[in-house]
Amino acid sequence: MNTFRFPHPLVLLVGFIILAAALSYVLPAGQFARQKNEATGREVVVPGSYQRVPATPVSPLDMLVDIPKGMADAAGVIFLIFLAGGAFTVLDQTGALRHGVDWLLARAHGREVLVIPIISLLFATMGALENMGEEIVPLIPVLLVLMRRLGYPVITAVAASLGAAIVGAAFSPINPFQVGVAQKLAQLPLLSGGGYRLALLLPAVALWIAGVMRHAIRHRVAPEITTDEVAADARGAGRHGLVLLLLLVCFSIFGYGVVSLGWDFDQMGALFFVLGVGAGLLGGLGLSGTAEGFVTGFRDIAFSALLIGFARAIFVVLEQGHIVDTIVQALSAPLGNLPVTLSALGMMVVQTALHLPVPSVSGQATLTMPLFAPLADIIGLSRQVVVLAFQYAAGLCELITPTNGSLLAILAICGIRFDQWLRYVWPLYALLLALGVAGVVAGIWLGV
């Protein structure tokens, strides 16, 4: 009996690109008028301004050209992944990563399970603070080494990092790219409703960590460290220590640069290049050995990096066909005829559906908030609840949408199929979404 096998990630993304091009022949072209929002500096839609425009169907040739255009749009993060992948391959070839993980395991003996909540809390915090997503991709090789040496399934590396960051971002009271942009566009005071969001963030993160730990413990296979590995680590302990010190320094600079200096992907990529060169020289690989390590890393990481460009191409095609605004208009128009609570829940449905063609939370906010905020005033719904509905629906959808390039790239690095991830994450996603729905309904009842 043949069982259905989920398509390869590249097949899946190319399929979505073809579907987007096909929709440009079926859906009417249209667009909203846009104006600059002074609070955010972004171009936002003008409510009630949707109108039909001449059709601009995307031809097969244009569709193919949009693939490299999507890669060009995502060039910063793609090159970051290449440079970070090369750097961590060099690190791995020095033996320092395995040495550091084994040192950690020796001191955490009997308490290995605590590694999961510590890592998850770290990434959930970064998600809540600055919507960490693509920045996690280059850190996955380190987490893979750690999880394998702990004996946990590799899917734990995805869940404890990107998964935790997505949950932290979706329920965050301060995430500038989700709640911050949405509140400004809804003309709400920044950080308003923070206490209410925090009250939901804590159980959300606790629920996620509990689910990740439960799966990891149930599927743990005790690792074995051979005497040859121990002897080799002992002989190289001095060099390994220097490499790990460099890694710690670079990670500290990375965190400071992202959070405090507003670093973009170019600065991050430069830092990882320095890390790789420094690690190779300190680890005794020499210039040629370091260069060969980078080349090996480039080759191994290429597929994962390019997936992000293919994912970006979907939106490029939709924009070229002028059907993004048509989709938004069609989904949002019926909401004004529903009772208040159903309208709020309908907004969650719309935000979830929109996140497939618009896999950017800040971009989705600029599309929907100027439409939903005035609608909320008309039907007697709090604008704060509108922002909550956006956060919990669009933010959590990052866990399951196949157009999330970062997710697909990380899954590819870990050798995990998208359907395997869906089976793993679906129960947790459903529980978190139920928490979000409860938060929206309670927000209406409490007058948030």
Features:
19 helices; mainly alpha; 448 residues; single chain; two-stranded antiparallel ribbon
Helix-residue proportion: over 70%
The residue ranges in which pLDDT falls below 50 over 5 or more consecutive positions are: 227-232
* Shape category: globular
Q: How many strand units?
A: 4
Structural classification: mainly alpha
As laid out across the biggest beta sheet, the strand order is 1-4
Distance between the termini: 54 Å
Q: Radius of gyration, rounded?
A: 23 Å
What does it look like?
With 448 residues, the chain is mainly α. The chain is built from 19 helices and four strands. Its main location: membrane. It comes from Hymenobacter monticola. This is YfcC family protein. InterPro entries: C4_dicarb_anaerob_car-like (IPR018385), DASS-Related_Transporters (IPR051679).
Secondary-structure topology with pairs:
Elements: H1 9-26, E1 30-31, E2 34-36, E3 43-45, E4 51-52, H2 60-73, H3 75-94, H4 96-107, H5 115-130, H6 140-150, H7 155-170, H8 176-185, H9 194-218, H10 227-235, H11 237-260, H12 265-282, H13 286-320, H14 324-332, H15 340-354, H16 361-379, H17 383-397, H18 405-414, H19 418-446
Antiparallel strand pairs: 1-4, 2-3
